[in-house]
Amino acid sequence: MRGAVRKFGNSTGIIIPKPLLSAFGANAGDHVSLTMEAGRIVIERLDADPRAGWAEDAARLAEAGDDGLVWPDFANEGDQDLTW
């Protein structure tokens, strides 16, 4: 399947035919991720809410006791001289 880069106002774009969108489960208005891999543009459909499931995962980590800081708190040189 071939396409063309077209002018859309001050921008340019490529119209993706419906069969290609359907092949990876995307619809008009969906959010996608665009990356470059080996000289090719890769388009991936994103979930509607990129933070979906975060609350459940945080609760699961807390319940398992695995929600501690990965990096300990650390100070900068001269912090003890600061007046707040």
From TrEMBL:
Residues of the SpoVT-AbrB domain: 6-51
Give one Pfam family, short name only: MazE_antitoxin
Give the molecular function GO annotations: DNA binding
SUPFAM superfamilies the UniProt entry points to: AbrB/MazE/MraZ-like
Give the source species.
Aureimonas glaciei
Supply the name of the protein: SpoVT-AbrB domain-containing protein
Q: What InterPro entries would the database entry show?
A: SpoVT-AbrB_dom, SpoVT-AbrB_sf
